[in-house]
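W.,

You were right to be curious about this one. When I first looked at the sequence I had no strong expectations either way, so I just let the prediction run and decided to look at it fresh. Below is the sequence, 286 residues in total, followed by the output.
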Amino acid sequence: MKQIKIYLQYPWVVSDSSYYKYLINNPPENVEYITTKNQKGVIINKRFFWFSNLLKKMIRKITDFLNLPIPNAHLTRSKEKYDLIHCAHCLSLNNKNPWVADVERLWSLWVSGQNSIIGKKIVREILLRKNCKKILPWTNVTKNEIEKFFPEIKNKIEVVYPAVPLVKIKSKRHKEINLLFISRYFYEKGGLHALETINQLTKKYENVSGIVVSEVPKEILNKYSKNKKIKFYELMPQKELFENIFPISDIFVYPGYSDSFGFACLEAMSFGIPIITVDSLLEKKL
């Protein structure tokens, strides 16, 4: 069978998501992703992480204020030969090459102008092009959003759930029941409620301890650091998480209030760790 070469198109230089790292490292059979050297997963460098998010928020805020109809669509520039373009939660402006796009939420199809007549028209025209082969939402919620907004492309939409490989690292022996919370976005992912829950349970039960891996605000850290049964860590590489944190964790406490799709939950499940979360989906642009 022919080896299919796929160009991975990002809205920025790389995509700040572990999804594409998993996809590159575990591609479908007979598929090869090209131009992927810079894709290292989520951003964990503290300064670059906050600068990147601040820049994105400023761009969206300014363009939203001006109500500019700007689609989240980009041209693919590569000297390498490929058979298909895979757009990482964005759209393609190429007129000839076939392309597909995975979509996190409806709003990710625009930089701004989602609710403007012109903005909607521009994105509709891109989606109706013949070389737009498939739109692949991460969830049924997103699928329903897109179908409601663009019923003309219903036949192009197909849900493909993100996945992570099973981990071969074995759990490490430990005496306590460790409750774990991990997130780069402390407040948005429910870190305050997770930490308060962990704090109460560690005080109530002698054999319960807590692990928090996040950028915890100083005032919150000062309040809860008095509880010596809770260990706080700053953001760390995935390898370190997989080798030292997940293997000693027993329950993943993750409200995830602003998640479109909680990859942290999949990673915990890959270790066989049960999850406590909430049934909540908020419309946020992070």
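Here's what jumped out at me. Helices lie at 18-25, 46-66, 117-127, 140-149, 191-204, 218-224, 238-245, 263-270. And, maybe more interesting for your project: The domain at 177-276 is CATH 3.40.50.2000 (Rossmann fold).

Coffee later to discuss?

I.
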